[in-house]
Amino acid sequence: MTQYPWKMVCTSCDAEYPALEVRYRCDCGSTLDVKHDLARFTDGRAPAPTRQGFDARLASRKRLDRSGVWRFRELILPLEPENVVTKPEGNTNLYPAPRVASWAGMDALWLKHEGENPTGSFKDRGMTAGMSAARALGMERVAVASTGNTSASVASYAAQAGMKAYVFVPDGNIAYGKLCQALAYGARTLQIRGDFDAAMSLVQAVCQKEGIYLLNSVNPFRIEGQKAIGMEIVQDLDWQVPDWIVVPGGNLGNNTAIAKGLVEMKAVGLIDRLPRIAVIQAAGANPLYNAWHSDGVLRPVKAKTLASAIKIGDPVSFGRSWGWLKALGGVVEQVTDQEIMDAKAQVDAQGIGAEPASCATVAGLKKLVASGIISPQAQVCGVLTGHVLKDPDAAVAYHRGTLEGIESSSANKPVVVDAQLDSVLRALD
């Protein structure tokens, strides 16, 4: 039997479980973390990962090296190469965004665009790790509940791996740019008459009853893949650690993963300090924000926001997210849908473009700068989680001024003109 250099550990009671088994939670009900044997790098049992080694892989043509996740495989999931399912993912751009920086009150700003992953969102980073674990476990069927991006990712990776995928999505609450991917890639798509939290409850019950492998972010291996976002940011910055990393918060797997990965990088000497992290929630889907600013107790909410990717009222990664937030001196902010769409107009006008949930990052950053929590001179990396074409209807409606409840203060309205040269020339300006 293969001996893997990690084990699964409960985030609450520290109970330990084997490295690779079909398990998502501790017997006590809490989520699990993958705990790597990092001591193997210092006691000589394994070669220590180095900056030079990771940089060398950037020039490699090998399949695993070309992935922005598996390039960091020693710290992600040291699996047998034949079990790795990769497209490849990652290697997303870190854009300077001076226009957005000025709008947010910053001297400068970097935006890491995870919408440039194969299926258009950061979910591909976690999915490559989760799907590879599924293959190593011999699974043939996988499933997720999703507001859209996860369904697209699992459908694509399952098709590549030759597995059957099932996706549970809230009926009428998923953008077509995401639903079309799940359908096109061949996933069995169940539209649940309920919200995401209802879909999440059902998919967990179905997976347990039918022996289907669950690939939501409650799966500890998903978190391992998503760690590469922070690792890649640091490598993009020539191994310099930013002062802040700002991310949107829905199911809370992303901020958990980024923080965990950076702490592990510091433990093995790849970086010498840690950034602070800020999580931004939609005001209509804000259970972490409420807990952070009160007694620390999760109280699920009935989620309501046009930022569908973070429209989650009962986040499964709440417990482990809390601990990693504390470890990085984190803060939590909330933003309205109006603030999200105004920020989206700025991000899109920079020529970068992102779906609404992504732009909660920039909306929250603006508030944190205004309140004095983040200095205008700080080096900040904001994470954009999904591509602009994930939800084109929201962008078009904003610029046409037809998005219900939203004032289109930065609209770029389309102009209808007669098919005559004079009419066109008059309309140019």
Would you kindly provide a brief summary of this structure?
The protein is built from 16 helices and 13 strands.
Folded structure, characterized:
- By secondary structure, this protein is of the alpha/beta class.
- The chain has a domain at 94-119 and 222-400: Rossmann fold.
- 37% of the residues lie in helices and 14% in strands.
- Helix 4 (123-136) packs across helix 8 (220-226) and helix 9 crosses helix 10.
- The mean pLDDT is 95.
* Sheet with the most strands, sense and barrel status: 6 strands, mixed
Computed structural class = alpha/beta
Q: Report the sheet-strand fraction.
A: 5-15%
Task: Output mean pLDDT.
Answer: 95
Strand tally: 13
Q: Can you tell me the CATH topology of the domain at 94-119 and 222-400?
A: Rossmann fold
As a whole number of angstroms, the C-alpha radius of gyration is 21 Å
Number of helices: 16
Strands of the widest sheet, in order across it, are 4-5-13-10-11-12
What letter string, H or E per element, gives the SSE order? EEEHHEHEHEHEHEHEHHEHEHHEHHEHH
| Helicity level | 25-40%
Write down the overall geometry.
globular
The CATH class of the domain at 94-119 and 222-400 turns out to be: Alpha Beta
**Low-confidence parts lasting 5 or more residues at pLDDT below 50?**
none
* CATH second-level architecture of the domain at 94-119 and 222-400: 3-Layer(aba) Sandwich
Distance between the termini: 70 Å
